């Protein structure tokens, strides 16, 4: 929604005010979280806090990404994914599986393909004459980019594990 509002030309002041309100609400939200919700946030910040429980997924994901090295282990040769250490390797953690088998080079190639797809979508949106068409195509591009960013951040430990699949790959 924020992306479409930005494309529609909403002033940056509103985005700034919303961001300030969001940051100001963090202490209030934290006080109202239940104990298990606070625990999930703390495990996200430090997965080693519960390595066999809540932190297991992200620890195994990072091991899978790191063990791929520069060129990877080869298709269907990843130890983390093939030996079932990596949970949900076909959906949520497909990028970890991919990075382990195709390595850094393959991962960068995949990210370039995603970036090219998004550039094409946003160029199409910019060329639309009718506002509704422009907003619709931009919304598609923003939705796709959010799914990609959230999944990649999740498998690298930069965001909490939320169960978002990687578009076109999962």
Structural account:
By secondary structure, the protein is an all-alpha fold. The longest helix is centred in the middle third of the chain and has 34 residues. The radius of gyration is 19 Å and the shape is flat. The two termini are 24 Å apart. The mean pLDDT is 90.
Query: What does the main sheet amount to?
Result: none
The rough form would be described as flat
Q: Per DSSP, what share of the residues sits in E-state strands of 2 or more residues?
A: under 5%
User: Which bin fits the share of residues in helices?
Assistant: 55-70%
Distance between the termini: 24 Å
Q: Which residues sit in consecutive blocks of at least 5 with pLDDT less than 50?
A: none
Radius of gyration: 19 Å
Instruction: Kindly state the number of beta strands.
Output: 0
- Classify the secondary structure makeup into a structural class: mainly alpha
Quickly count the helices.
Answer: 7
Q: Give average pLDDT, whole number.
A: 90
**Can you write the helix and strand succession as a string?**
HHHHHHH
């Amino acid at each position: 929604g924020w992306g479409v509002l930005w494309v529609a030309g909403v002033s940056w002041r509103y985005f700034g005010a919303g961001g300030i309100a969001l940051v100001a609400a963090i202490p209030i939200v934290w006080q109202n979280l239940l104990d298990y919700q606070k625990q999930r946030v703390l495990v996200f910040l430090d997965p080693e806090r519960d390595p066999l429980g809540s932190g297991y997924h992200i620890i195994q994901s990072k091991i899978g990404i790191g063990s791929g090295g520069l060129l990877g282990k080869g298709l269907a040769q990843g130890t983390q994914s093939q030996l079932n250490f990596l949970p949900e390797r076909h959906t949520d953690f497909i990028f970890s599986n991919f990075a382990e088998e195709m390595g850094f080079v393959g991962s960068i190639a995949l990210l370039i393909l995603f970036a090219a797809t998004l550039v094409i979508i946003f160029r199409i949106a910019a060329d639309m004459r009718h506002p509704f068409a422009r907003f619709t195509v931009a919304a598609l591009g923003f939705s796709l980019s959010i799914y990609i960013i959230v999944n990649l951040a999740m498998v690298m430990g930069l965001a909490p594990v939320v169960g978002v699949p990687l578009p076109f790959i999962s």
